[in-house]
Specification:
The structure holds two protein chains of two kinds. By secondary structure, chain A is of the alpha+beta class. In chain A, α6 crosses α9. Helix content of chain A is about 30%, strand content about 30%. In chain A, a hairpin with a 2-residue loop joins β8 and β9. In chain A, about 40% of the residues are buried. In chain A, the strands form two sheets. In chain A, strands 1, 2, 3, 4, 5, 6, 8, 9 and 10 form a nine-stranded antiparallel β-sheet that branches. Chain A is elongated. The longest helix of chain A has 19 residues. By secondary structure, chain B is mostly beta strands. In chain B, the strands form four sheets. In chain B, strands 13, 16, 17, 18, 19, 21, 22, 23, 24 and 28 form a ten-stranded antiparallel β-sheet that branches. In chain B, strands 1-2-3-4-5-7-8-10 form an eight-stranded antiparallel beta barrel. Chain B has a four-stranded antiparallel β-sheet with strand order 12-14-15-20, with no helix packed on it. Chain B starts with a helix and ends with a strand. β7 of chain A pairs parallel with β27 of chain B.
């Protein structure tokens, strides 16, 4: 009898503990971001924690508000439900601007939700993204949401500052653990080139070597060209170079994808075409293909350009195939590949990676 | 015999060759790395006249007899400068001197007869000498020499004479004894005395040949005379060396580059200032050409060509006429304008996932650039001769005039964005972002952003062919810093607001050497 009393007490204690902290640990598991011709061309990986059946009601409510990210998010939900903007403000760091918060709007948006369900969290440096849904326990209705939490060492604070260009956000947003119900498709990154991004002191650093800190990884599947002649479309590049050197505008336009030729009137595309692409092909006689990334329509070619007086620089162009012919294009059709390859940090990392090779 | 004939023939042929051939020979020797013989090249030939004082010590057991007397020496010498500080040479001299032990007194009084005598003994030597000397020129005025000295005794003579007085009963009779004539000494023979000599001279420049008062000491290391007594002849000589001529590969000329007095250059102290127009089109053109090759960049450079210059005269060499110089006062100022064609935001019209939300921005940014910059040109050095053409080459005036060109500026880039951002929330039931219907949130946003970029160039420019560093022409580096714009706006995302920032790459940064 005494034994069973202690046993019940132990079970209750374990249950209480289980509800205070989510089970599990952070992990890295690469996932596809972009596929072409059934091959994963771009993959990503962020430091991820996946919750299992963890709700607001499971969070230890008597813990200090700033002691854990989960406790902080639960308090945010409670204060928003009450429309108490001042209380919400007390959860934020200095980025909180009271005038931008509307108590009525909060209450209105959350009136039908009475709990939150934690999905996952992603960590880089002192920054953690908590993915949770507002849920209505009496129905299946839910509202996917997220919180941006800063760790100041001994406490956690919400922030409204979020750099949407940070590779952590770009790559992390593609995580199957972010978007809910998708299962994580395994990706073999052995043949891919990794670019690791680390957040430190509010800055983003990148490296090709596996860092010891939290990182965001972007894996790219390159086809490398050891010599200029190993690039299959070298003939097209030579034609482009010759036309640019001769200022043969008719020929140059004919080498553009048809629908892109019409975009040249837009200064946005016109400047890119005339002041970037044509300058490179006109003034820099040494064009050396370095590698390419396949797209569903062709590929993005990375190449170096140099002259007698200028050291090699790296640039990229988009080539698309129509029938048996190749054309130059001014934009990428797929948003995923566009967002990754045009990202300021990822682009710089790729550029530096190839600069070291030339 | 045949060998001798051949050598003579070769020698004869060599004698017939002129100095051009000798120059060629010199060059050949230089080319093959062989060293030219020491005796080749200019020798300074001079006369040597001196007055000596020569103490002469006999050491005969414990008796030391000292003779001393004056002498005169006459010689000829040749010396060659090896470099500005060192030289070597030979000197042949003839020396004539006599030495006297003045008194040898004797007196006696025997039986009322007193006798006394005074005797003078002298030696006279005729010698020839050969001095091998190393010369050191600490400056243009002093020459010091040291080296081994060899003296050959050609002839030795001696004499002894005096008076004898005899007094008997108050009558004194005086008689001369000996002979004042120098006679050849018996028991001596010509031999060699070796030792070393050390001395110094001071160079007096006159309009004619250089005269060098000198003081020289010779210290013997062995006895001169082949007698049983040990003897040494120390020699202190003062006199003058007179330079006569300089040889040059056999020819003799009366030039002496370092001893002849030169006419001193005197430059006018008058200066004048004037405005000079210097064509700088090539500078601006080159920099523009370089800058315009950078993708996305258009550059316009201007440099004001008017400068104030000071002209005057200056002496480059003390023995050459003065030369005019030009000194540019202050610097130049110019301006540059760089336009960056900001294409680099193909993703501004984007759809981007923001965790469980999809942002579709349907606005375009208006980017504007307001470049400002200054160019400064700092003159370094001084130019000799006419600024726009040198009438007479003056290699002794090593002018290297160049300009440090510096330009730097900051390009302020403004971004004005306007339009709408549509927000779509993740739809777990699909799953996906349902963008077919109305957006979950549609927000008009506006944003301002600023970015700055450092750009400009550092370079040097010279038309002066004497310049090695920096090299002729326009050289430098055009640099364009990395630039990004930060776009910050506020969006209401569901119940709360966010202030996302979006970074746009404007320029990757580059350096172009030219």
């Amino acid at each position: 009898m005494t034994m069973s009393k202690y046993f019940i007490a132990f079970i209750l204690l374990m249950a209480a503990t289980a509800t205070a902290q989510p089970n599990g640990s952070f992990f890295y598991k690469p996932y596809p971001i972009f596929k072409a011709h059934n091959a994963t061309i771009i993959a990503g990986s962020v430091n991820t924690f996946a919750y299992t059946n963890f709700y607001g009601k499971n969070v230890q409510a008597d813990a200090a508000v700033h002691s854990t990210p989960e406790r902080l998010v639960l308090e945010l939900f409670k204060d928003m439900k009450k429309g108490d903007v001042d209380a919400v403000g007390s959860l934020y760091d200095t980025s909180f601007q009271r005038r931008e918060f509307d108590g009525g709007r909060m209450m209105d948006k959350l009136k039908k939700y009475n709990d939150i369900r934690f999905h996952s969290k992603f960590r880089t440096g002192s920054l953690t993204i908590i993915r949770y849904d507002f849920i209505a326990t009496d129905s299946k209705d839910s509202y996917p949401y997220f919180a941006v939490v800063q760790n100041t060492g001994d406490s956690y604070w919400l922030t409204t500052n979020i750099n949407i260009t940070n590779p952590f956000t770009v790559a992390g947003s593609f995580s199957p653990y972010n978007l809910g119900e998708k299962s994580a498709e395994p990706v073999n990154t052995n043949k891919m080139t990794p670019f690791y991004f680390v957040n430190k002191d509010g800055k983003v650093f990148y490296t090709n070597d596996l860092p010891s800190e939290d990182y965001t990884a972007v894996y790219l599947l390159f086809d490398f060209y050891n010599t200029a002649h190993s690039f299959p479309q070298m003939g097209f590049i030579k034609q482009l170079q010759k036309a640019a050197q001769n200022s043969d505008t008719a020929k140059l336009k004919s080498m553009l994808v048809k629908e892109d030729a019409g975009r040249l009137d837009d200064s946005y595309f016109g400047n890119y075409y005339y002041d970037e692409i044509l300058k490179i092909f006109k003034y820099y006689p040494t064009i050396t293909p370095l590698a390419s990334i396949k797209t569903n329509e062709g590929f993005v070619l990375y190449f170096s350009y140099a002259s007698e007086t200028m050291p090699a620089q790296v640039a990229s162009i988009i080539l698309k195939q129509a029938g048996n012919n190749w054309f130059l294009s001014l934009h990428l059709s797929d948003d995923a590949i566009n967002n990754v390859l045009q990202n300021i940090y990822i682009r710089q990392a790729i550029n530096d990676y190839f600069k070291k090779k030339v | 015999m045949l060998t001798v004939i051949c050598l003579c023939t070769v020698a004869s042929l060599h004698a017939q060759e002129n100095s051009t051939l000798q120059d060629k020979k010199k060059n050949d020797q230089k080319d093959t790395g062989r060293v030219a013989p020491f005796f080749y090249g200019p020798w300074n030939i001079g006369a040597h006249v001196g007055v000596s004082y020569i103490p002469y010590y006999f050491h005969n057991g414990s008796n030391h007899l000292t003779y001393s007397g004056p002498g005169a020496e006459l010689g000829i010498r040749g010396l060659k400068k090896i470099n500005d500080q060192w030289g070597a040479g030979l000197q042949v001299r003839l020396l004539d001197f006599s030495q006297t032990n003045n008194t040898s007194n004797y007196s006696s009084n025997i039986g009322g007869v007193s006798y006394s005598s005074v005797t003078h003994s002298s030696y006279r030597f005729y010698q020839s000498g050969l001095d091998v000397m190393a010369y050191w020129y600490p400056n243009k005025q002093f020459i010091f020499n040291a080296g081994p000295a060899f003296t050959f005794n050609l002839a030795s003579k001696g004499r002894s004479y005096g008076t004898a007085m005899q007094t008997i009963g108050g009558n004194t009779t005086t008689t001369n004894i000996g002979d004042k004539t120098f006679r050849k000494l018996d028991g001596t023979k010509s031999n060699l005395q070796y030792g070393f000599n050390i001395g110094g001279a001071y160079v007096l420049n006159t309009n004619g040949h250089a005269i060098q008062p000198f003081l020289n000491a010779r210290i013997p290391l062995n006895s001169t005379l082949d007698v049983s007594d040990k003897n040494n002849m120390y020699d202190v000589t003062g006199g003058v060396n007179i330079d006569i001529a300089t040889t040059d590969g056999g020819a003799v000329s009366h030039h002496d580059n370092y001893t002849r007095e030169k006419k001193e250059c005197k430059a006018s102290k008058n200066t004048k200032e004037l405005k000079v127009s210097i064509p700088l089109d090539n500078i601006t053109k080159t920099v523009e050409e370089v800058a315009n090759k950078i993708p996305r960049v258009e550059a316009k450079i201007s440099i004001k060509p008017m400068v104030t210059v000071k002209q005057g005269e200056e002496c480059c060499s003390i023995d050459k006429p003065p030369v005019s110089y030009t000194e540019i006062k202050g610097g130049w100022e110019g301006s540059f304008e760089i336009n960056i064609n900001l294409w680099g935001i193909p993703d501004i019209n984007y759809s981007l996932k923001l965790w469980p939300c999809l942002l579709i921005a349907e606005f375009k940014c208006k980017l504007y650039a307001g470049p400002t910059g200054k160019i400064s040109a700092e003159r370094v050095g001084k130019s000799y001769g006419s600024l726009l053409g040198n009438e007479e080459p003056r290699p002794d005036c090593k002018s290297c005039v160049y300009f440090n060109l510096k330009a730097e500026g900051y390009l302020r880039i403004g971004v004005k964005a306007g339009g709408a951002v549509k927000l779509y929330h993740w739809t777990p039931s699909i799953p996906g972002f349902d963008v077919t219907g109305d957006a979950d949130e549609e927000i008009e946003v506006s944003a301002d952003a600023n970015a700055s970029i450092g750009n400009g160039f550092n370079g040097t420019y010279t038309e002066d062919k004497d310049c090695v560093k920096p090299p002729l022409g326009l050289h430098g580096v055009f640099f364009l810093g990395k630039a990004k714009a930060n776009l910050k706006f506020t969006i209401k995302l569901g119940p709360i607001s966010f202030d996302p920032s979006y970074e746009i790459s404007l320029c990757d940064g580059t350096e172009i050497p030219f």
